[in-house]
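Feature request disguised as a bug report, sorry. It would help if multi-protein outputs had a clear separator. Right now it looks like this:
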Amino acid sequence: MVLHLAVALTAYVFLMWILGFVPSTFLFVLVAVAAWRRYSWWVSTVYAAGVTLLLQLTFRVALGMPLPSGLLGLF
């Protein structure tokens, strides 16, 4: 599980600058939750979407921080 999360975190850092904050955060949380192997894929997907939305609202809206939009300009 530790190796799984280390690879996921490394991929997250690289994907952040390519895809942007929202898609890369969603994928990272989805992979991190999957590492636990406790939940089904649909529960993991809903959880990842909720965490991504919460982080987006916290940093971009409430704190007014600019977040990476990536090379593709997504979100």
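(second protein starts here, but nothing in the output says so)
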Amino acid sequence: MSGFGFSEEQEMFRKMVRDFSRKELAPGAKERAKQEGQYETAHEWAKRMADVDLIGLGVPTEYGGKEPTG
């Protein structure tokens, strides 16, 4: 695909992140933002994001990073 659109792989990744955010992050976001103990919440979200391979995307694979999966 040429031009300014997303490639098929990029579009699949974009949809995966959007769906994860809508399903996992958006519900209850305002309430979580008001809670004390943000570390525990952040740790929980990091684990959920790792479960769908969203952690380590900015790290080269030779250093243990991940490539997006579709």
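Even a blank line would do. Unrelated, but nice: The chain has a mean pLDDT of 79.
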